[in-house]
Amino acid sequence: MINCFCNLNRVDLGFSILGKILKLGYESDTTTFNTLIKGLCVTSTVKFFDEIVEKGFPPDFFTYITILNGLCKTGNASAAIILLKKMEEIGGCEPGIVDYNMVIDSLCKVRLVTGGFKLFLEMIGNGVSPDLITYKSLIKGVCRLGQWKEAT
């Protein structure tokens, strides 16, 4: 039901169901919170994420990827970078190639190519090898800026 309400853009009703679940004495899990995170707007999502971590619910891969995807799709790459750092601090899930590629691509799409290259170097420093998608995002980024020599 929570997923259905979130897909109908009625996250408020999703939270009502969560309240009822908790009131009845049932325990919630990470999947429930991931569903609600997906339904929330970016600002509310980051705040909600911090609250659930504070209350002892460990985020998993799907928690992080859902939030990163939302942040990147809304052009909020700076918040996505902060979340990548939280992944390292909180634990439970080390950032991988999919996470880095998503943020690098987002940075390059909003013409923050320098930030994309900086994250690229951090990624390599953390032992994550770039792939075709990483290079494609960076090349498209410098092309958008008209830096043809750098692209080559």
Automatic annotation (TrEMBL):
Residue ranges of the TM segments: none
InterPro entries, sorted: PPR_rpt, TPR-like_helical_dom_sf
Family of this protein: Belongs to the PPR family. P subfamily.
Species per Swiss-Prot/TrEMBL record: Camellia sinensis var. sinensis
Per-repeat ranges for PPR: 60-94, 96-130
Protein name stated in the entry: Pentacotripeptide-repeat region of PRORP domain-containing protein
Alphabetical UniProt keywords: Repeat
UniProt cross-references to Pfam families, sorted A to Z: PPR_1 (PF12854), PPR_2 (PF13041)
